[in-house]
Amino acid sequence: MVNPDQKSRSKLDSDDYLTKKCPHCYAYLPLQAKVCTACQKKVGEVDKLGFAEKPVDWWGYLIAVVSIAGFVYFMWWGFFRE
User: Fold this and answer.
1) Is the whole-model pTM more than 0.85?
2) What is the mean pLDDT of residues 9-22?
């Protein structure tokens, strides 16, 4: 019989881990680490599997959107304006 006070292994919380794993190089890190000591990449909070979450690269998205807008403007200027 299963004791209802015991936590099931399928419902682990992030509080159940003592370390987290870097998603880039798989090195073990302390829970409070913000940068991986092995590969020097930023890491986030621990997820339900024990891996650190990859933070969103907002600058990369911004550069991509500006580049696409510039390319669309260039295509309009080069081929569609009269």
Assistant:
1) no
2) 72
